[in-house]
């Protein structure tokens, strides 16, 4: 029997690091600067559950981006960030207005409703973006005891369809929601890509225009794991710390979440990664536009390209590069670029697309 105190050194790589795909920015690995930051935070003892020096410093970093009232609550993942944030913003009888295509509605397994205990009131949108007029389709019945009470408007920046709100569009939503006594939550899983697309600081379309609470994403922008609920308006939430624990999102060794977000945000790594991913999506879109038989469905404003092509072509292409159908019946697909997508990756994919279309 092996000595249990013996240190094993036979760890090995189980994948080919040259294999690339366009399925999700979650497929990418971790940026080397973030790995270095984690190593820097390792060693010795730090107080658990967020009382460490890295989580404390993260607060000051967040202030530099979102103002002195911002408070960050690191969590494990994006669904956790959204559930904790929306719980803290609603009553037991509360509801959240969101786009029908919103991640909280389509891709979180019902967690906001089943775990968060709130009702989602969805609105169809042509491009993933809400407007005051679209919000009003669900913004009514506050005194109707038979209907869940609309208390929050949740938007995503950028949206699930890869489109980006302008600061003025978000300001109009915030003004309209606040006029109805509602709060505004922003799902920022890809907030860095939106800021890079708009070429403005993140504050320009968050706290400056009236967003109350932000789910800040790190994983899709080069982190291993880790997001944060960033409270921009302290009056918009209740019991955040308790809800984070109750929702199983309180990391004991929080320094390893916080230091990743610090590594992204203390300098310009967040922006470098996002600009690169966006640029690769533009390169992909430009190449696709030159190929007959493929239709780009939405404006390419961040790091996603949505397209429609023959189903059989997609199935063959998926055997060479992994990606997902968005609407399989219609032949719609989504191609995502990441911080580590290269020009060679894009060009190889375009060549494969042309070859499969020609078959």
In short:
It is built from 13 helices and eleven strands. It has helices spanning 32-41, 53-66, 78-89, 103-106, 111-114, 132-135, 167-179, 191-198, 240-246, 255-265, 269-289, 311-318, 343-358, and strands at residues 71-75, 94-99, 119-123, 149-156, 183-188, 213-217, 227-231, 295-296, 304-308, 324-327, 332-336.
What layout of secondary structure does this protein have?
Elements lengths: L31 H10 L11 H14 L4 E5 L2 H12 L4 E6 L3 H4 L4 H4 L4 E5 L8 H4 L13 E8 L10 H13 L3 E6 L2 H8 L14 E5 L9 E5 L8 H7 L8 H11 L3 H21 L5 E2 L7 E5 L2 H8 L5 E4 L4 E5 L6 H16 L1
Helix pairs in contact: 1-10, 2-10, 8-11, 11-13, 12-13
What does this structure look like?
The strands form two sheets. A seven-stranded mixed β-sheet has the order 1-7-6-5-4-2-3, sandwiched between helices. It is globular. Helix 1 crosses helix 10, helix 2 packs parallel to helix 10 and helix 8 crosses helix 11. It contains 13 helices and eleven strands. Helix 7 links the parallel strand 4 and strand 5. With 359 residues, it is α/β, with parallel strands linked by helices. The model has no long low-confidence stretch (mean pLDDT 96).
Strand order of the largest sheet: 1-7-6-5-4-2-3
The span between the termini is: 57 Å
Strand proportion: 15-25%
Q: How many strands, what sense, and barrel or not for the largest sheet?
A: 7 strands, mixed
Percentage of helical residues? 25-40%
Keywords:
alpha/beta; 7-stranded mixed sheet; 4-stranded antiparallel sheet
